[in-house]
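Appendix B, example 12.
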Amino acid sequence: MLTIRVIACRSRSCALALAALMSRAEVAAPQQPDPYHPVPRDTVDAAAYDGWKQYGLHCSRCHGEEAQGSSFGPSLIAALKPDGAVPDQASFFTLLANGRPSKGMPSAAKMGLDSTYFAGLYQYLKGRSDGVLRGGRPARRAG
């Protein structure tokens, strides 16, 4: 049970001491986990971080939030494996540039994805495919 006492301070030094005690109590309070903003589990460089952002903007609606596929698009984690449909970076860049119109995938240009992000997008997705990066928002490495 928590007991709160009201202390009357008549001097400036008493008020300052009370303020110091209160500030220490606030700092010592444990942080509650935030289910809407989990702590990043991986740290990536700027290019891969930008790739993650572009994935979220342009690709996740079809390929799923974690690149594991959906009813609209296949898993990019599986596609980027050595035995997958897109086994290397050159194939990935070609796929982005041309799209797969027969399967409903527009080109990157039609989606508004600039080719300057292709390398970072590949780096992020290849890291997910190789198991080096886990799902969720990564942290951006400084520098």
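Strands lie at 43-44, 139-140. The chain has a mean pLDDT of 86.
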